[in-house]
Amino acid sequence: MRIFEDGVFAVPSGADVFNPYRDCNSDLDLDDAPRLRRLNLESYVRTVASTPRVVVVAEAPGPWGCRFSGVPITSESQLLDVSFPVDGRKTSRASDAYSEYSAGIFWRVMLRFFPRFFVWNAFPLHPHREGEPTTIRTPRTSELRSFIEVTAAIVDAAGPVEVVALGRKAEQQLGWAGIESRYVRHPSQGGAVRFEQGMTEVFGGIS
């Protein structure tokens, strides 16, 4: 958690970037949402094996997943499900907890490998279109570069057997950091089958 406290939690939001661990949108978030999201992330960290065999680096928080849950590729509804391995709290003002399509696919595949992996976002803040806080945009090169040290610190602390780049943006950032990675297709936008095949191959080669 020290890595996140030092490199992520205090970073201010901008016109088209939202830091879910620091800031609150009064129209969308509960008053203490940032604190709850930090606690959700801590809950996730505590459930992962002390030395995860694989670190999965994704791209950025989606508007209905990590943006509200605080846990990468995970939705509020999953954290509230008693059968889900990570406990957490709802942080949105919505009457029902948000669900995310990609998060559903991700955990359907990855539950069988849990807790032997840790997932994080190359750009851990939510990139959106200006004035549209529940949209998503691709992180800029400068944004990815600004978090190279955070990603590298996570990989170094975990000491995994393998690092997986979930998408090309993550692969690019890991390359800048000098970290060898294995590319796997992101599960969104029709990538579910290739994602499952890729992750099955990754863990099939790890004892």
Q: Any overview of this molecule?
A:
This protein is α/β, with parallel strands linked by helices and 207 residues long. It has one domain (2-204): Uracil-DNA Glycosylase, subunit E (3-Layer(aba) Sandwich), CATH 3.40.470.10. 37% of the residues lie in helices and 11% in strands. The chain contains nine helices and six strands. The protein has helices at 2-7, 33-47, 66-69, 76-79, 101-110, 141-145, 148-158, 168-176, 192-204, and strands spanning 17-18, 54-58, 117-121, 126-127, 162-166, 182-184. A four-stranded parallel beta sheet has the order 3-2-5-6, with helices on both faces. Helix 5 (101-110) runs parallel beside helix 9 (192-204). The protein is globular and about 45 Å long.
Summary keywords:
alpha/beta, single chain, 4-stranded parallel beta sheet, 37% helix, Uracil-DNA Glycosylase, subunit E
Give a concise summary.
The protein is α/β, with parallel strands linked by helices and 207 residues long.
Helix content: 25-40%
* Rounded mean pLDDT score: 96
Q: Ranges with pLDDT <50 over ≥5 residues?
A: none
Amount of beta strand:
5-15%
Note the topology.
Layout: H1 2-7, E1 17-18, H2 33-47, E2 54-58, H3 66-69, H4 76-79, H5 101-110, E3 117-121, E4 126-127, H6 141-145, H7 148-158, E5 162-166, H8 168-176, E6 182-184, H9 192-204
Parallel strand pairs: 2-3, 2-5, 5-6
Antiparallel strand pairs: 1-4
Helix pairs in contact: 5-9
